[in-house]
Amino acid sequence: MKLGRAHSSILLLVRLLALAISLTLGTAHADDYSDVAQLLREGKLVEAQTRVDRHLAAKPRDPQMRLFKGVIQRETGRPADALTTFTRLSEDHPELPEPYNNLAVIHAAQGQYDKARVALEKALRTNPSYATAHENLADVYARLASQAYSKALQLDGSPQPGPARLALIRELSPAPASQARPVLAAAPSTPAIKPVAPAPTKPAVVAAAPAPAKPAAATAAVPAPPATPPQPPIAADSNRDVELAVRAWARAWTDKNMTQYLAAYDKSFETPGQQSRSAWEQDRRLRITGKSRISVNLLELQITVKGNRAVAKFRQDYKADALAVLSRKTLELVRAGDRWLIVKESSGG
Question: Which pTM was predicted?
Answer without folding.
Answer: 0.55
